[in-house]
Amino acid sequence: MASKRLSTDTWAILLSLTLALFVRIGLIKTIAW
Amino acid sequence: MATSAELPDLRTEYPSRPPEKPATFVSLLPGIALLAIVGYAGKFVEHFLNTYTKAHHITFPNIEYVLWAILFGALIANTIGLARIFRPGVATYEFWLKAGIILLGARFVLGDILKLGGISLILVFIALALSITFMTWLGRTFKLNPKLTTLLAVGSSICGVSAIIATQGAIDADEEDSSTAIAAILALGAISLFAFPLIGHALHMSDHAYGLWAGLAVDNTAEATAAGALFSDAAGKYAVLAKTCRNALIGFVVLAYAIQWARKGLANDTTTAQLQNKAAFLWKKFPKFVLGFLFISLLATLGSSTNPTLASLGFSKPQLTTLGNLSRWAFLLTFAGVGLRTNLKDLFKQGARPFIVGAVGEIVIAAITLALVLGADRIYHL
């Protein structure tokens, strides 16, 4: 039975907001470029 | 994480392939690693050439990693080809694209627009309206496909690669169109880097007027900054300010195009029937990642607030820099993916027209913005 798939947008939002949260609370401090 | 991630349609490139099975997380890893290697190779070559030419006092234009990553990717895909093991991971480039755009929100603070002041903002709006109108007309005259025309119009009028990438996601354009538009915009950006300072000096422009012109007319942020700095240090500062103002409008233009294309139903003909319920259709067509972009943008704006309570809700400057860099890394994977998914046969089918449209458009837009800036300079003594 096919499970409900999340869209690429949803995955992108989830990843981005998680990264933003990590940056906000200091878990990710500096990312070099 | 991405065990059930939606993969883009591969049928146009691999017509004989069986239907795509849902990818497992492990099956994505080789392709993602390839994206990272190709992208990083582009970044490495840009850095190496810059260091080498500076050390040996050789005048050489800065070719951005974007172009190298796309070139390397296209070279692999169109010579040795993309092995099956890499395909699921390479197809995640759209995911990295959207994550990059959302994180890019950190680089667009609404207050940046205010910094530039009224007159500059008015010029940005006039230049934007004229550029988009002219490029759209030019694209239609040369009978380019509407999505490529839109990408070229947005790329040459707003801010080059970032805008093309942002709009590509919003209007569901093909990666070939995106790659053609990016190649045209980047090639023209390199030319403007040399042409702009020469014209500026010939016209004896002031630092402010020249910086404003470079910021308004040169497409990519890096090239706009460089074109400004090549004239003078002060002009470089003004160019960055004007360019930031233009950048800040990406979100709004992507939003407008998304609504326009959703209304036309051109993004996908099979969904035309769903137009019965316009609100639901609009919501379905609306690129949700734009909401993420706006949310991050809002937090970036709050962080710069003078009200300590509001500022505590947003991001600090170092945090914004970190988010901006995360966005760049996501785009690095995206650009490698754009190259790896580019079919040169299809690209050549497009012919020279996209480049001609891009070149004619750029020259006219540069002339229009120059006239606007010179006019404003005469009236307001910039």
Principal-axes geometry of chain B comes out as: globular
- Shape annotation of chain A: elongated
**Extended strand count of chain A:** 0
Largest sheet of chain B: none
SS strand fraction of chain B: under 5%
Put simply, the count of helices of chain B is 18
Give the mean pLDDT of chain A. 86
Task: Note the gap between the termini of chain B.
Answer: 53 Å
Q: Helix and strand string of chain B, N-terminal first?
A: HHHHHHHHHHHHHHHHHH
Gyration radius of chain A, in Å = 14 Å
Q: Which range best describes the helical content of chain A: under 10%, 10-25%, 25-40%, 40-55%, 55-70% or over 70%?
A: 40-55%
Low-confidence stretches of chain B: 1-19
Please, what is the average pLDDT of chain B? 75
Extended strand count of chain B: 0
Look at the helices and sheets of chain B and give the structural class. mainly alpha
Q: Give the CA-CA distance, first to last residue of chain A.
A: 44 Å
What does this structure look like?
The complex is a heterodimer of chains A (33) and B (382). Chain A is mainly alpha-helical and 33 residues long. Helices cover 52% and strands 0% of the residues of chain A. Chain A is built from 1 helix and no strands. Chain A has one helix spanning 8-24. The termini of chain A are far apart. Chain B has helices at 25-55, 65-78, 87-90, 93-104, 110-116, 118-141, 146-171, 175-202, 207-217, 221-231, 233-247, 250-264, 278-285, 289-303, 308-313, 317-340, 344-349, 353-380. In chain B, helix 1 (25-55) packs across helix 2 (65-78). Chain B has 18 helices and no strands. By secondary structure, chain B is mainly α. Chain A binds chain B through residues 3, 5-13, 15-17, 19-20, 23-24, 28-33, and chain B through 1-2, 4-6, 22, 94-95, 98-99, 101-103, 106, 287-289, 291-292, 295-296, 299, 315, 318-319, 322-326, 328-329.
Short description:
The complex is a heterodimer of chains A (33) and B (382). With 33 residues, chain A is mainly α.
